[in-house]
Design goal:
With 73 residues, the protein is mainly α. It has three helices and no strands. One of its GO terms (molecular function) is DNA binding.
């Protein structure tokens, strides 16, 4: 069931609040055992690399479109 409409809020707002709550209640990296810290940091690193790759591809795509637009008669 969708909870957001029952609370009369937008689903994105509820999603944002949930993420903020999860982030605020996540254990601090210093409180975790070394193995878990490494796993968490590796996952974060992987996510950041994926985000960078997406941004790199999007940048190349839009730059190519801009070049095409400039050189068309």
């Amino acid at each position: 069931m969708m909870i957001a409409p029952k609370l009369d809020i937008h689903p994105d707002t509820l999603s944002k609040w949930t993420r903020l709550h999860e982030r605020a209640n996540a254990p601090a990296v210093n409180d975790l055992p070394d193995r878990e810290k490494i796993r968490r940091l590796e996952r974060e690193n992987r996510e950041l690399r994926q985000a960078n790759e997406i941004l790199r591809k999007a940048s190349a795509y839009f730059a190519e479109g801009e070049l095409d637009r400039r050189f068309r008669p």
